[in-house]
Amino acid sequence: MEKLSRRTTLKWMGLGAALLAVSRGQAQQTPTADQLVKGKDAKLIVLSQRPIVLETPYDLLASQPERTSKEILYVRNNVDLPGYNSVEGASLEGWTLEVGGLVNKPFTLEAKELLSLPQHEVTMVLQCSGNGRSFFQPRTSGNPWKRGGVGNVTFRGVRLKDLLESKGVKLGEKALFITAHASRQGNAAEFVRSVPIHALEEALLALFMNGEPLPAVHGGPVRLVFPGYFGVNNVKWVAKIEFTEAENTTAEQMPRYRVPAIPNANIPILPQEPGKTYPYSFTNSRPNWLVAINSFIFAPQEGQTVEGPYVRVEGVAFNDGLVPLTSVEVSTNGGRTWFRATLEGSGRSFGWVRWRATLYLRPGEHEVIARAWDAVGRSQPLDGNIAWNERGYEYNGVMRVRFTVA
């Protein structure tokens, strides 16, 4: 009886430990997006809790083809500013902005003064440079984005060049870069990014997004926005802007957010052998600045069954806005032949452009692919893996969707 009693006791002890482990596991479950950021849709995919990284599920993204709402817009924070994890607007009261560096008249202003200056509006694609990272093989480092690290939003605020003019500020001849610093209040980590000086032409101190005060989690009350540039360059919670002769040397400028490149050549990216590392430097790589040309298929969606034989295929396309998109093509035979879709707009656009095509398809399983072209001949590769890089930046391979025609 004594042995049996001990065995029984051990069993009960083991069961208790297991129940305790389950209980702790439940208590430590990943919080949902709306628990991490007040006002976000709970369906957003949590890629990281700190810093907060949220991906928009693709069906949600496709459900808003005109403009991406603040509730479903992705979040990619390199820094979490304490108290700013909300889609509600942040107060301008007490926020200051310092402007200096290679200028004749450095100044500091109260951010609320920006409301009295002429306001400008721009619709643009906001996209993480790691968007699509999961499609690179072998797997790269970083958050495993699929296609939901992107959105189409409208910012409104004051052009940086208008602010400089209102203050009588002139740039020095050696001012070749705009270097922006995020606020470090609440002991937030340092975050600094530099972009080339020609970005000044479109640079915007954004105060509003989609007609509402700029959401705190998206950089409110003031975000420095560069239309046509990847999201990381659009510095949230901007507190200081410097005009500098060189790029800054913090980790977010080097070695992060760069791809291998051949200096002084027309080849924009140097192929990197998949799975290998690269010795990044300022001379053998380039930053993730301008958005790569891309297109998405919003309908049909993967695995969907649609009525035939006439099937409507539609989606969006975008580039860096420097030149117009000229066409979007779709193919149902792996790229052997292409059918030209109808673009909704013409001319330069920093926002995405909708496209659609109607295909005659027999009943059965099909795969459709889409690629965009622009006025300088840029397009998407059939094999996006040719641009493999160890951090998985700037993926723009053609999108492939498999579906069934009833």
UniProtKB/TrEMBL annotation:
<dbReference type="InterPro" id="IPR014756">
    <property type="entry name" value="Ig_E-set"/>
</dbReference>
<keyword id="KW-0500">Molybdenum</keyword>
<dbReference type="InterPro" id="IPR005066">
    <property type="entry name" value="MoCF_OxRdtse_dimer"/>
</dbReference>
<dbReference type="Pfam" id="PF00174">
    <property type="entry name" value="Oxidored_molyb"/>
</dbReference>
<feature type="domain" description="Moybdenum cofactor oxidoreductase dimerisation">
    <location>
        <begin position="291"/>
        <end position="403"/>
    </location>
</feature>
<keyword id="KW-0560">Oxidoreductase</keyword>
<feature type="domain" description="Oxidoreductase molybdopterin-binding">
    <location>
        <begin position="91"/>
        <end position="249"/>
    </location>
</feature>
<dbReference type="InterPro" id="IPR008335">
    <property type="entry name" value="Mopterin_OxRdtase_euk"/>
</dbReference>
<dbReference type="InterPro" id="IPR036374">
    <property type="entry name" value="OxRdtase_Mopterin-bd_sf"/>
</dbReference>
<keyword id="KW-0732">Signal</keyword>
<dbReference type="InterPro" id="IPR000572">
    <property type="entry name" value="OxRdtase_Mopterin-bd_dom"/>
</dbReference>
<feature type="signal peptide">
    <location>
        <begin position="1"/>
        <end position="27"/>
    </location>
</feature>
<dbReference type="InterPro" id="IPR006311">
    <property type="entry name" value="TAT_signal"/>
</dbReference>
<protein>
    <submittedName>
        <fullName>Sulfite oxidase</fullName>
    </submittedName>
</protein>
<dbReference type="Pfam" id="PF03404">
    <property type="entry name" value="Mo-co_dimer"/>
</dbReference>
<keyword id="KW-0479">Metal-binding</keyword>
